[in-house]
Amino acid sequence: MLQRGDVVAGYTIERLLGRGGMSAVYLARHPRLPRWTALKLLGPEMFADSEIRGRFEREAEAVSRLEHPNIVAVHDRGLERGAPWIAMQYVDGPDAESATLPPAVAVQVVAQIAAALDHAHARGVLHRDVKPANILLERGPRVRALLTDFGIAQLHDAATRLTRTGTFTATLAYAAPEQLVGHPLDHRTDQYSLACTLFHFLTGAPPFPIDNPAALIQATLRTAPPSLRIRRPGLPPALDTVFATALAKTQAQRYPSCVAFAQAAHRALTAPVPGASPARAPRHPAPAPSNTRSAPPVSGGPGAPGDVVAPSRDWTARGAKGRSTPGAGPRPRWYWAAWGRRRRTTRR
Question: Where does ATP bind (predicted)?
Answer without folding.
Answer: 40
